[in-house]
Inverse folding.
């Protein structure tokens, strides 16, 4: 489910309306699956969604999407550094991480990594507070 928030954010849904077709293409799923999930996120007030037009993240949705992206990228950077340390850097490939981590682990990872600005692929890691 968090993949949808990440996809909408990645497609510019913090600033503009994103079509279900774009979301389906990004996630490599069928459009009916997207429609059902968009209705769920609208119910949770994380997006504004009007069938036939598309979705845009609410302020709460932007915050949640950035939290998901931050945790994903912190975990990915930590694992990349651990793998590099044990000499297995060549094993690192871009992989979707859907493992939920707690706020406490997020803080510990960020502190351990020195509040990094980018993940191993050069993507920015959202700050804990704010943009």
């Amino acid at each position: 489910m968090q993949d949808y928030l990440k996809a909408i954010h990645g497609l510019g849904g913090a600033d503009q309306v994103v079509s279900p077709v774009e979301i389906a293409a990004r996630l490599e799923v069928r459009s009916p699956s997207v429609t059902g999930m968009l209705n769920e996120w609208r119910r949770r007030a994380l997006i504004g969604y009007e069938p036939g037009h598309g979705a845009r993240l609410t302020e709460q949705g932007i915050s949640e999407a950035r939290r998901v992206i931050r945790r994903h990228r912190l975990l990915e950077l930590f694992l990349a550094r651990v793998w590099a340390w044990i000499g297995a850097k060549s094993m690192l490939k871009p992989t979707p991480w859907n493992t939920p981590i707690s706020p406490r682990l997020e803080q510990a990872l960020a502190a351990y990594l020195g509040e990094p600005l980018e993940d191993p692929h050069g993507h920015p890691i959202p700050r804990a507070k704010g943009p």
